[in-house]
Design goal:
There is one protein chain. This protein is mainly alpha-helical. The protein contains 2 helices and no strands. It is 82% helix and 0% strand.
Amino acid sequence: MFPKKYSNLLFILVMGFGMSLLMTLIITYINTGMDNEYVDRFFKAWSVSLPIAIIAALLVGPPIKKFVDKITK
């Protein structure tokens, strides 16, 4: 188990992982279709999208959380 103080960071990492995985699977399928090379294209695209998703979540996540906290009770 991880200490509670790392919960926000772990959430961002797991969310970035999951979102980039799902989005890359779907977008690769929509753009190129399913064939013998689909998995290779997916992994190539995911190797780019995963770090971008995690960095974006790290940068955008905290300010958005503060904003949401302000507009909710």
